[in-house]
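Example 656, ligand WT7.
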Amino acid sequence: MVRAAQIFYLASSQFDVTLIMDYPFQVKTLGEYEAAYARAQADPEAFWADIAQHFTWKKPWDTVLDWEFTTPMVRWFDGAQLNITENCLDRHVTLYPARTALLWEPNDPTEASVEWSYQSLLERVEAFCHVLQARGIQKGDRVCIYMGMVPELAVAVLACARMGAIHSVIFGGFSAESIVDRVQDAQATAIITCDGAFRGAKSIPLKPIVDVALTQCASVHTVVVLQRTHEKVHIQAGRDIWWHEALPTHGKPFPAVAMEAEDPLFVLYTSGSTGKPKGVVHSCAGYMVWSTYTFVNVFQSSPGDVHFCTADIGWITGHSYIVYGPLAAGATTLLFEGVPNYPAPDRLWQITEKHQVQILYTAPTAIRALMACGVQYPDAYPMASLKVLGTVGEPINEEAWQWYHRHVGKEKSPIVDTWWQTETGGILISNLAGVTPAKPTFATLPLPGIQPVLVDEYGHELVGNDVSGNLCIRFPWPGMIRTTYGDHERCRQAYFSTYPGYYFTGDGCTRDAEGRYRITGRVDDVLNVSGHRIGTAEVENAINMHPKVVESAIVGYPHPIKGQGIYAYVILSSSCATALEEEALRAEILQEVSRHIGALAKPEKIQFVSGLPKTRSGKIMRRILRKIAEGAQDQLGDTTTLLDPTVVESILAGCL
Ligand code: WT7
């Protein structure tokens, strides 16, 4: 146990001065990385206390770490009080109020972009805190946010954090039913939304979808609506208010609420292999330290760098590397409303040039999609400001890696392949840009404080190098999941029960002869489609809602752009008479998936089958279905244990 000293406040003000030049906890050489890794392992409490003292705390901690992985129970910086927004905003405003905190690039390149200083962002956050407070929102209340990628989305998130409300951002592509699931699970009292959102050539309604959801959300008493598309929307008196009308007319400070270190900062729902999405809960102090530490070290960012993460704030990548990490580090974060290929496939390169971006962080699926459009697009832009490229969300194939390196990075910017998850809060395994060596398709080395373990199917640890197994982590890190909202047992079950004593990631992984890690993909029934996590059970449940569907089974298959595509095997109550009828039914099934989850979970292929390959105990043998979907008919393996082996023949005969 380490006692925080009285000099604490002094230390944080010293940090603010050094922050202008440099980050005190940035490792800059391979030797420094090795030393930090060794110290974090040998004396984690002293290591993290040294890092944490460079943040602004309202009250120092009593204990650095308390943990066990059985219940599980993980507490970092217990006894401390803080507010993450003082670290993301106030302390920067004190020293350099005019530094740009946020740049926003609209969907339509002819519309003006937005540039907000740290001072301006703080004022907007404080003003919006007053809006929420006037509606009775208090510390601990849950607030859902369902918006497009507008700068006010960052304001909404930070305002919740400043007043201690627990935000739950719902990606703007999710359906009304997905909103209902999330609002009900969190018992949210307010929703912040927009009239609609611009994405590429489309204008997407948001408020109308919220209206549908709200017929089943009795806990919600307030809806704040931001005007963006100016489509006419329904405003329900007493419940709905316009953002611009509710804002106070005069600038009024809003003091940041003191949060306990382990108070929840936010909930973010993510799919697992079973049931409905889980509400992953992150804590105030640990998450702040982890998102900032990883941002500064992985991207080797310097204060004031322009950081362009193309993710949506509706995903964890946006939380940690658009909002919290870059702002806590005093960087300039760039939010983009649109999509990479609108109005043309040079949009990301044009934005990079326009805003003089230093760090570009995107997903393999975007790289592959742009790669397919041709080299002429990136080649037309020198992008001389770029220093670091990053990738996240799924394994990156060698071809995409090389293209990114050559045509975007012009062979001079290191690529960081960052492996992590919603549950990990921030990056766990990655090379550090220009500091530790990259290896294409490898995430390479764990961050200081991360102790990866590979286990075989029985949970035996695979020691030494040149091994493959299931990836687990054996020691807590500050940014890890604390619980699943409202159901701690589900957290234990999902992450801490498969291999007792370890946090299980759900990913398969190889450790090469030099000890570098390569993530090979999920080993559970979770698909990764365009970097989005999709639970097979959820899609099956949605398909089964169609009145003509008896049963279905979903598997992933390799897709050249999306990484994985969704293949659905569906049993109907009565077969279709014509091909036309089949087509119509396919469209209805797709609609069913859109309605229950969202368009992102729509299968690419739907094959109608008369039966599914099941074992005698009634379990679907997905291994066989995966092989068929992949087109590897010759590798089906042993099918003799099936209840009815002839099912396989008939599926093969009709496969797409
Ligand atoms: C799953 C987590 C982490 C933010 C975005 C996704 C896969 C993530 C990589 C990578 C190979 C990766 C894993 C992981 N994944 N990054 N660099 N290389 N696979 O967050 O939705 O929670 O998904 O994405 O399978 O388990 P998420």
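Summary: The longest helix spans residues 579-596.
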